[in-house]
Amino acid sequence: MPIGEATIPVLDRGFIFGDGVYEVIPVYSRRAFRLSEHLKRLQASLDGIRLPNPHSEAGWGKLVDELIARNEGEDQYLYLHITRGVAKRDHAFPQPPVTPTVFMMSSPLLHPAAELLATGVSAVTASDNRWLRCDIKAISLLPNVLLRQLAVDAGCAETILIRDEAGGGDGFMTEGAASNIFINKNNVLCAPPKNSLMLPGITYDVVLELAAAHHIPFEVRKIGKAELFSADEILLTSSTREVMPITLLDGKPVGNGKPGPMFTRLYSLYQNFKSEVMRQP
Ligand code: PDD
Known about the structure:
8 helices; 13 strands; binds N-(5'-phosphopyridoxyl)-D-alanine
C-alpha cells in the first residue's frame, strides 16, 4: 500500500518501548544484495531479543521479491522492521505471546554523490554512550540519533564513536553512528574486531572479503583513538553509503586530507563485485 496509508496501533511495542529489530538491504538492478547475509543477521537480532522469527528465510525471500517488484527503480533500499506486537503496556513480554508486527518499505537508493567521493566527507568523534549490545540491530536508536546529530550540527557526515571508560571501554574506536569504520595505516587496512559493542556490518564483511581476495594487507584488531587521528586514511561503510572516504576528523585533515589509494582501490573493487554478483543468474 502507499506509505501514507500504512498505520500501526499506538500500543505496538515498537512504538511504546522500541521493542523490535530491523534490517536495511540494498537492491541493485532490482536484486537484493547479500540477502541471505542480511536475513542471517536479522535472525541473530531476533534471537538477541528473544523474538521468534515470523518468517522462514524462503518466506522473507518471497516478501522481499514482491516488495522490489511493486516499487519502481532499479536501485532501492529495503527497510524491514519487526516488533513484539501489540499488547497492553507492560515492560515484560506479553503472555501469551502476541503476533509480531512486520513492516517493510522500499525507498530509492541514492548513491553517494561523485563530488563527495572525490573530496571525501568530514566526521566528528564522540564518546560511545550506547548500550552493550550494539550487535543487535535494534529499532531503539535514540543514542545513535543523538550521536549522528552531533555530526550534522558540526556540518559533518558521520560521528565516529570511541568507547572510553565512561562507556565501559578502554578508549578504542567501535564504529560510526550508522556505519562501520576502517583505517589505513602504512598501507594496511585495519578493522575493529566484531563484538557486542558494534554492529556486524554486511558491507564490512564484503570489504574484508575483497581485501583478502585481492591480497590487500589487512588486520582485524582494536583501533585506539590516537591511531584513528594518525591514520593515513579513514573509510566508512554501510549498505546505503557503500564505501566512502573520511578526509577531515574533528576539523583536522586525515592523512593528506584527500581520499587515498586504499579508498580508491576498495571503492572500485566494491563496484566491480556488485556488478559481477548482479550479473549472475
Ligand atoms: N545502518 N553500524 C551501525 C550502527 C549501523 O546502523 C549500520 C548501518 C552499520 C553498517 O552496516 P551494513 O553494512 O550492514 O549496512 C554499522 C543502516 C544503513 C541504517 O540504519 O540505515
